[in-house]
Amino acid sequence: MPLRALKIAVVVMGIMLVVGFAAMVAVIAGRLSRGPPVPSASRAPAPLEIPAGARIEAIGVGADRFALVVALPEGTREVIIVDIGSGRPLGVIPLREKR
Fold it and tell me: Are both 59 and 29 inside the same structural domain?
């Protein structure tokens, strides 16, 4: 009797493996057939404005924001922190040389 129960358990687990693998393949195929999501125009962030004559010297990226180091025409620099999701500036940090 125990051998018969073992055979049944092996057959049931084999069927579960095949069904699980088929389900996984179906989910992956469904996701691939849809393609990447297209961003809607209403969610596109507004252009980021930097001061006239300024140039971007460096960009740093974090989890939900990025930072731009901007060289201003007067010769000074500042860091602009921007929210990635909204494109909205979160703050400006002026940089100066230590004396």
Answer: no
In b/e form, how buried is each residue of 43-70, taking b as 16+ CB within 10 angstroms? eeeeeeeeeeebeeeeeeeeeebebbbb
For residues 40 and 67, give the distance between their C-alpha atoms in angstroms, rounded to a whole number: 25
3-state per-residue secondary structure call for 22-54: HHHHHHHHHHHHHCCCCCCHHHCCCCCCCCCCC
**Prediction pTM value:** 0.53
Is there a contact between 82 and 89 (Cβ–Cβ < 8 Å)? yes
Residues 49 and 30 in one domain: no
Containing structural domain, residue 18: 1-37
Distance spanning both ends of the chain, measured CA to CA: 88
Helix (H, G, I), strand (E, B) or coil at 21: helix
Per-10-residue mean pLDDT, the chain, length 99: 90 97 94 73 72 92 91 92 87 87
